[in-house]
Amino acid sequence: MKQATLALVPLLLLSACGGENDTPLQRGDSSTNPDTPTSQTPSTGQDCGANFSAERSLNKFEFSGVFWQVEGERLQSKPEFRLYADSRSLGATHTISSDKTLCLLAANVFGSINAETWDGDDNASFKKGELYYYAPEFKFKTGLPDMTSLTDWRSKGQPETVTQPLESINLTIHYRDKDNNLITLGDPQTNLNPIILSCNQTDFDISLSLQQVANSALATLDPAYCETQTVGNEAQTFCLSAGFSQNLKLDSCKFDLTKVSLPDQRGNKTSVQVSGLLEFAQDNAELTITDIDL
């Protein structure tokens, strides 16, 4: 079994998708609930031919550590890791026998690394005629470990890792500009496509450690998970942090027909259903779409 063992990068990675100030062009169905993914049954629409397939290399892995916050469960950040296609993603191929617009769009999104030309209205991210790329992204998220305080963590032997089941997985199709910024247009909730992955691994190691925190951030953090230490002649605050261990043991995942919103060159989104595989190698993952239903 191949395993995805990733190089160590800082746990506290500050990352965000671009386009927070983008002008929405067209909104999709906002009734989608990203916390309750369900497999979709095939629709009666025409597909893209019996031999449709698309493969795309997802080469960028990002891990985000979080602190316990005072806002409560609704606003509490959760440990997550993301994998998506950035400008260094070179692997892509597709097979298609249909000339339907949606089929061609799906082939470009999931099986091409070629630049596309923006044909929509000018907005904060793209001007008409500018080049962009499609960037599929999977986001894995889990709950915080069962630690009631820093004292509780220490009473349990200060474990460096604990095992947690996945809480949710979302598949999002971003635009990527020439500067490698990920951009999503419209209501953020319409860009989150809940997906059920059946993987060789169902539980994941969550790393726990004390991390120094800037004084400006303390107002949002739960003081029960923090303490002040003297470093040299200065008093510094450290808080308990949790994040996915970067020594992932994922090998392969598959998913049945699932609704995905495909963005096009004008900023419109159209829902299709896709099924496929996610195969992990040493330093990337290969996304293969094996079936599509319009």
Helix content: under 10%
Radius of gyration: 21 Å
Global geometry: elongated
Give, in order, the helices and strands: EEEEEHEEHEEEEEEEEEE
Largest sheet: 11 strands, antiparallel
Query: Given the helix and strand composition, which structural class is it?
Result: mainly beta
Average pLDDT, all residues: 83
Poorly predicted tracts of residues: 1-46
Tally of helical runs: 2
Distance between the termini: 35 Å
Account of the 3D structure:
The chain is mainly beta and 294 residues long. Helices cover 6% and strands 40% of the residues. It has helices spanning 101-111, 150-155; strands spanning 53-58, 60-64, 66-67, 80-84, 92-95, 116-117, 131-142, 161-176, 182-183, 193-194, 198-199, 203-213, 226-231, 234-244, 252-263, 269-280, 285-293. Strands 2, 3, 4, 6, 7, 8, 9, 10, 12, 13 and 14 form an eleven-stranded antiparallel beta sheet that branches.
Layout of helices and strands, plus pairs?
Layout: E1 53-58, E2 60-64, E3 66-67, E4 80-84, E5 92-95, H1 101-111, E6 116-117, E7 131-142, H2 150-155, E8 161-176, E9 182-183, E10 193-194, E11 198-199, E12 203-213, E13 226-231, E14 234-244, E15 252-263, E16 269-280, E17 285-293
Antiparallel strand pairs: 1-5, 1-17, 2-4, 3-14, 4-7, 6-7, 7-8, 8-9, 8-10, 8-12, 11-15, 12-14, 13-14, 15-16, 16-17
